Amino acid sequence: DAKTTQPPSMDCAEGRAANLPCNHSTISGNEYVYWYRQIHSQGPQYIIHGLKNNETNEMASLIITEDRKSSTLILPHATLRDTAVYYCIKGSGGSNYKLTFGKGTLLTVNP
Amino acid sequence: GAVVSQHPSWVICKSGTSVKIECRSLDFQATTMFWYRQFPKQSLMLMATSNEGSKATYEQGVEKDKFLINHASLTLSTLTVTSAHPEDSSFYICSARDEGPGKGTSGIYEQYFGPGTRLTVT
Predict the structure, then answer these.
(1) CB–CB of B95 and A32 under 8 A?
(2) Does residue A16 belong to the interface with chain B, where contact is any CB pair within 8 Å?
(3) Cis bond leading into B8, ω under 30°?
(4) How far apart are CA A111 and CA A61, in angstroms?
(5) Which helix (H) or strand (E) holds B8?
(6) Which residue of A24, A91, B55, B96 has the fewest C-beta atoms within 10 A of its own C-beta?
């Protein structure tokens, strides 16, 4: 289940870093934090996931607090095409796991 | 990378007719696929889990006789909306879990989403 808390909306200037927070204070030891995004009228796109350590890939960085109760997704240089709803989801990721989406954060990148 | 396709991308049908939506994993095996529905300005709601070679598992409140799911191969799942009505108009999205050889070794199975199908019932 979702059980994460995200701000409903955020704005970011093009070219600046976008920092999207997520609270997952009820996360258990075997649960990962996943980030997906959905651009308008498209299917969700996987961004990144992590368990304990900070993670980075070609799309973004994920910073997880030491107590794992919250995390921040960082888009280092936001572009207009990054405007989307960003979903933070916690879950085990195993064979019985079902991704459940909350309301997410609408990130609007402004020129 | 892993690609999931859906067909059709949009469909308009008359009330009372049935509509079939296909979901294909193009370059990986997917024993498990999922069907979601999304109404305007709302989040994705999981409808059912589609299992290859067995019956689908439906989420609470989803009518299994109205939303027929068939998952006959490792790369194809279909969702048929039977006797569609205007309230069934929505954006239907499928996803597929990559459970091919060597996957899941870290305990996680990657899940990839299709582009969605816009259904309008008139």
Answers:
(1) no
(2) no
(3) yes
(4) 22
(5) none
(6) B55
